[in-house]
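Assemble and predict.
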Amino acid sequence: MRMPFRLNLTLGLALVSLVILGAVFAPLLTPHDPILDADLMNSEMPPSWDHWFGTDSQGRDVFARVLYGARVSLTIGIVAQAINSTIGIALGLSAGYWGGWWDDVVNGLTNLMLAIPSLVFALAIMAVLGPGVPSLLIALGLTNWSWSCRITRSAVMSLKSQGYVQAARTLGYGDIRIMLTQLLPNIVGPVLVMATLGIGEAVLAEAALSFLGLGIRPPAPSWGNMLTDAREAIRSVPWATIFPGLAVFVTVLGFNLLGDGMRDWLDPRMQVRA
Amino acid sequence: MGRYILRRLLQMIPTLLAVAALIFLIFSVLPGSFAGTMTGGGRRALSPELVAQINAQFGLDKPLPVRFWDYLVRLAQFDLGTSFRTREPVVDLIAARIWPSLQLALSAMALAVTVGIPLGFLAAMRPGSLLDSITMIGAVSGLSMPQFWLGLLLMYVFALQLGWLPSFGYGDGRLRNLILPAIALGFAPLALLARTTRAGVLEVMGSDHIRTAMAKGTSPAQMIRWHVLRNVMVLIVTTLGLQIGSLLGQALVIEKLFSWPGLGSLMVDSVAIRDIPVVQGTILVIVLWFLVINVLVDVIYAVIDPRISLR
């Protein structure tokens, strides 16, 4: 069963690179502007050599909007998950290492977060803060750290009785130093896997919130709000629905495959289970 | 058993209280006010007296701790407050949405269970086969696809192009109206169940007691029934429980897309007009559902696996 796991990693890496390159080099890849090139004379054109993904009902180039939308989606996905991972690791490390009342507090908080579906929580926060990128980063960055925290905590609890941690303590290392230099490097694998999968989740959540009109405000292109526009005209302009959704799908698939592949790579016992 | 269930149900109260407090706090730091939204964002500015009157009517003029205490007291009496917009009790608004929500969520789950679990089993029986590969590719795709995009595509093909099914609406709960949203909502849980079942079966098949059973000459059919199924059950129930528990929340976008009159669309619509009592109420119900399902899952564990005792 070596083949499928290599396939996961390779395909995941390829898809993620494709999306990142598309986002970074967007201005070189298309001559069209995602917002300003609204040309009503050329609206609702099917895919062609000039407009690879066709044009939407306002005459904007769908390919250009998908490329520029990748910048928004990737930025939000990566930054939001970085916030989640930081919170999850900090709470998990400290709770697992110190235990006691702090552990109870963190555990209670984690259970609380698990009980509120993260999309519901994010929606509530967006309702308070209003649409926009900063609100999205807060809404998605504060609501999906519970699994990172759990995994870090349980790994630290089994690691802290290990000889090298005891040795560090004997040498007079401070608690924070032990956590950062002795424990953190040993849990980096599972934490990275969680983070990779989490980016996919954040991209999906951003698309959903923008689709509901609570994420990125039009006319700025985001895959979610492109789908809101496209929905009105789905009968005459189906390509405006197909391509932005396909972009979300490819991106999330890439991060999911990459995450699965990394997990199999780090833990060969899991290979068959993938 | 009865005492265990009762105790577990009582243990939900602190979590619910914490959620209530959290949601209350979040909406109390709200920069915009409902009175402001109701008057069209300041374009037709209301007189300050009228705004004060509206705030007093909904008790928004009192200090925060007093409001929170009032809120809890009312909550204890199953009073979720009054909708800012329709002036109806929130409980009534929510009650009207629960059945459509459950209908959709349970249909989606039924689809996921009846297709996902057998598919996972079949795939695990022949690892590396064509069916196995297709199942695994389908599963990771299902988990990566935005549900509402799948919904849009289904709507386009089966409602707008082929005209077989209605494109949106509840249609008095007819099956025709239920099919498309249920498929859109059920596809991701289906994928997850197929994947989990396959992984679980493969793990059990590789374990010592299966090898022993095979060496004893147990027939494959008997082995699956007595040895594999029971051991995989715990894993499946865990996954299923988490999925069912979070399905009401997951359904937000699908309900909105298909104009399905469930809790999710109620929450989304209420968020748009800042009808906060309704938003708070729907969140509490969604969390309550998650917690009740969790208790149920723990009880089922004890029934299917005698090694797990009810503590």
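The two ends of chain A are 10 Å apart (CA to CA).
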